[in-house]
Amino acid sequence: MNIVLSRDAQVKIMEMTVSNAEKYFGQFCSVLASYTRKTAKLRDKADELVKYLIDFANTENPELRTALKNMADELAKIQDYRHAQVERLETKVVNPMKSYGSLIKDKRAEIKKFNSVRNREIKELEKLEKLRHRAPSDRHIISQAESSVQKASVDAARTTHQLEETIDHFQMQKIKDIQKMFSDFLTVEMIFHARSLEVFTNAFQNLQECDLGKDIEDFRSKIHIKTSNEDVRSLQATNLSSNATWQASSMSVQSTLQRHQEVEEDSFEESEEEDDDDYEDHRRAEYATLRK
Amino acid sequence: MNIVLSRDAQVKIMEMTVSNAEKYFGQFCSVLASYTRKTAKLRDKADELVKYLIDFANTENPELRTALKNMADELAKIQDYRHAQVERLETKVVNPMKSYGSLIKDKRAEIKKFNSVRNREIKELEKLEKLRHRAPSDRHIISQAESSVQKASVDAARTTHQLEETIDHFQMQKIKDIQKMFSDFLTVEMIFHARSLEVFTNAFQNLQECDLGKDIEDFRSKIHIKTSNEDVRSLQATNLSSNATWQASSMSVQSTLQRHQEVEEDSFEESEEEDDDDYEDHRRAEYATLRK
Hints:
Keywords (chains A, B): Cell projection, Cilium biogenesis/degradation, Cytoplasm, Cytoskeleton
Family (chains A, B): Belongs to the CIBAR family.
Pfam family, one (chains A, B): FAM92
Oligomer: homodimer
Structural class of chain A: mainly alpha
Number of helices of chain A: 6
CATH architecture of the largest domain in chain A: Up-down Bundle
Distance between the termini of chain A: 63 Å
CATH superfamily of the largest domain in chain A: Arfaptin homology (AH) domain/BAR domain
Largest interface: A-B, 114 and 113 residues
Protein name (chains A, B): Protein FAM92B
Order of helices and strands of chain A: HHHHHH
Main location (chains A, B): other
């Protein structure tokens, strides 16, 4: 009977092994899939930032414009790495974790099969026991029952042995896979962080080197005109003598303002469209490279 | 009149400067806030993974248990860095970006003030023009109008100069702040990636060193019992002579199974609760350290 007892304890451990795998692999799969999706969302947000940076850069003077565009390029590079990270997490971590679902189902089926064999053994044992109570002297019938018990026990022993081998193999595979999957997870993250660190460092140095003084001079030259009071007075003294001049000037103020506005609106729309195309082309080219 | 023309072009540039700042700082603020929130969500997901890893580790044999718990600790450390990253992004990037909202509003008000002064100048010019058409010989009234034009022009020149200085200062501050905010953004990211890389590398090495062979031996010793057919037969031969033994055994099978189940369920719940506490304490301690 010690065999039945220790066999039950043994099978209990095996059942726990499979149940735990089911529970925790399920949790790992779902949390890692979610982690991957959130990483993809972070990539998308940073992509938006890249787009805004390029748009904004186009409204600034040369030094800052170049610096911001360079930074946008570096940030886009990091998003390409992040995209590769997302794809690798899916392929190397989430999918292998997911595939455990059907493997665990198989093991459950084998345990179920074992349990039915074990129940038959217990039933035969109970039958034998009853016979010994009711007909202790009927050696023939008891001997038959003993033989059935023995047969059921041999079956149970064989199935236990099979199950033992199956679960042993499952456990070995499982812990190897866990080590492999999390090693892959850590590798994917390491690669991403190493590359990002490099690119961020580059971007930082470039941004530091940007000479804002030049841009300020550029800006000043655009908004500054000579408007001292003497200039205003002398200009008025010469102009006040002619009506025609005032009228012509008054008209040209309006048309200049209109033209000015039109030009600026057009160039802004154009530059935005160009950026979009450049940006998409850039991303597609980068992804194509990554896929190779 | 050239003054009015170039002044309009000049103010147009200043208006564009403020409008662009409003548009792009608004976009930066919203996309960076969203980027920060998504980073926080990634931290939360990784925190979940840490929790599951510890729970799962507690169901495994010593080598893998230790390896997974160490890895969970390292992952938790990275989430503490990520938490610091989130806080720094808010403090050093999103909030300064946000504060530009009211600054831009002030600049808009100054441009509006300038425009009203400029409109007064144009009105005075138009008035003078009309008078010269209607009463070209009334020197007194024309002289009065000329004096009003001159006064309005001086006002406009002064306001232009003020606006010029204000916008010059705004632009200088703005490009400095852009450089500062994005340098801070890059620094926060660099620090996070550098630390993460270090910790992930550690975690990877630890996981590689884990000796799974030992765990497999441990597991085998738990699920393996001697169940050769000879053992089964010899055990039956000695036991079949006593009814009492069978009965007692049969009862003990049931009670042992029940006890076994209870113990396992209890210990599982306990270990889960303990982990929760450990985990929370750990996080709280870590955050407290970070806050110091």
